[in-house]
Amino acid sequence: MDLKLSGKTALITGASSGVGRSIALELAQEGANIVIGHFKDAQNAQTVVSEIEQIGSQAIAIDADISDAENCRKLFHAGEQKFGGIDILINNAGLWPSNWIQDIPLDEWNKTVEVNLTAVFLLSQLFIKNKLASKKTGKILNITSQAAFHGSTTGHAHYAASKAGVVSFTVSAAREVGPHGINVNAIALGIVETNMTKAALAANPDYYLKRIPIGRVAQPEDIAKIAAFMVSDAASYITGATIDATGGMLMR
What we know:
The chain has one domain: NAD(P)-binding Rossmann-like Domain (Rossmann fold), CATH 3.40.50. Helix 1 runs parallel beside helix 2 (about 40-55) and helix 4 runs parallel beside helix 6 (about 155-175). The chain is an alpha/beta fold and about 250 residues long. The protein has a 7-stranded parallel beta sheet with strand order 3-2-1-4-5-6-7, with helices on both faces. About 45% of the residues lie in helices and about 15% in strands.
């Protein structure tokens, strides 16, 4: 299927590795230009830039701490300046700290919410303001988690809470900007094999596999294909939805 993404520009946070990297490469295969948001991961980010250029698309990597509003503006405006505009925003970056509720320090709670939820708001706000001012359409895709619905059983209550906020924000944003031709959706991930989850999977593989009806842990490429569809014109009649990409962990 031709997703008609050629010539469009996508800003993807957390795109130097894991799910974000795979989404960046998938969209590049469809002809999109990519703005790679990362934080202190320049070597991996530049590797992704090179991979995208080998595909035949263009990319830039911007180091930005998206827990900071000014850094969000820097990231967004750098993409605009390079490519003339941002057509697609994918809020993918996230923190997954581990602590039981009684042990979570306030600064860890705050940082998790800032990266996983507040940055989604800040970048979406920049994107929406730009689209409303230019009277152009666009796509926002937020990466959330099955934990938003199930909660956490393994010491990640702050992660689960922030991801639940992403789901609610997605619905609210979709209602507000749908009449202006801006689609806002989310993908709820289950267990994906990335650097972020590698240690937990290695320590207790049976616990995680037993929770997945399909019987395998997702690879980042599995998610990337779904993401590419969700930001394409083929999904233009979908908004305010959270698509469950969990191998059956989440069934609604």
